[in-house]
Structure formats: C-alpha cells, structure tokens
Automatic annotation (TrEMBL):
InterPro entries: BTB/POZ_dom, Dros_DevTransReg, SKP1/BTB/POZ_sf. It comes from Glossina palpalis gambiensis. One of its GO terms (cellular component) is nucleus. It comes from the Eukaryota. One of its GO terms (biological process) is regulation of transcription by RNA polymerase II. This is BTB domain-containing protein. SUPFAM superfamilies: POZ domain. It is found in: Nucleus. Pfam families: BTB (PF00651).
Length: 137
C-alpha cells in the first residue's frame, strides 16, 4: 500500500531536513510507522511540516523512509550500526533488534546466505548491502 504513494510522490505533506538534502514524505505513513513522528505531529498540527533531523545523513534517512513505505531497505555495511541506532531512536515499528541480533551477526549471516531470500524476514544481497523486510500484519 505505502509503496505506491512513495513511488508517485503524490500528496506529500512533510519535509524531512537532513544533513545533505531534503526528503518529502507523507505524514500518514510516518505517523503509522513511528511513534516518534506521531508525537511530533500531535504536538505540531500544521498542514505541511518541516522536521529537522540533526546528524542524520541523506542515505540513512532515505533508507529509513524506504523501510517505512516498502518494508525493505538497502544499507551499506559501514552504515548498518548508524542505521539501526537511528531506526530505534525514531521508534520505527517493525524495526528492532533483539539481544542476540546485532549488526555484526546480520553481516555474518549476509556473508553465509548470499542471494537467499527468507520470505518476509530477511533478504540478503550479493554485495555490500543488507536488506531487512518486516511483516505488515
């Protein structure tokens, strides 16, 4: 559902201001995907919001948005730790690590399971990227 909204860039009503560039998104998608953004929108009910994301690079924010819209994301191995940290800080639903799963474990699995797809759980790619996929039940 969210993927078609993202691809068409139709009715976007929030601008995310990162370190390098601006990203546009839909409040509805951010609201249902993240309690962090939900709190911002409740506290600031305006028609078009601009949210400044200090210290978040364009690549990481772009991939977090892809995760919220599509449920899949590609992150460079060198950015996995920052990606996980920011995703958890923004309280993105379906985005969490458990105590036995760390970036190092994910990368290790990626090396072992190249080009193998685990349905809705994880899809490993055959290059310096890893994709996460969450279930939308």
């Amino acid at each position: 559902m969210h993927k078609s909204f993202y691809d068409r860039a139709y009715l976007m009503d929030v601008t995310l201001v990162g370190v390098e560039k601006l990203l546009r998104a839909h409040k509805l998608v951010l609201n249902i995907s993240s309690s962090y953004f939900q709190q911002i929108f409740i506290a600031n009910p305006c028609k078009h919001s601009a949210i400044i994301l200090n210290g978040i690079t364009y690549n990481i924010m772009f991939e977090l948005l892809k995760f919220m819209y599509r449920g899949v994301v590609n992150v460079k191995q060198s950015e996995i730790e920052a990606f996980v940290k920011i995703g958890e800080r923004q309280q993105i639903k379906g985005f969490s690590t458990n105590s036995t799963s760390s970036a190092a474990v994910i990368v290790d699995k990626m090396e072992q399971e190249k080009e193998r797809t685990f349905g809705f759980d994880v899809h490993f790619l055959d290059y310096d990227l890893v994709a996460f996929l969450y279930k939308t039940e």
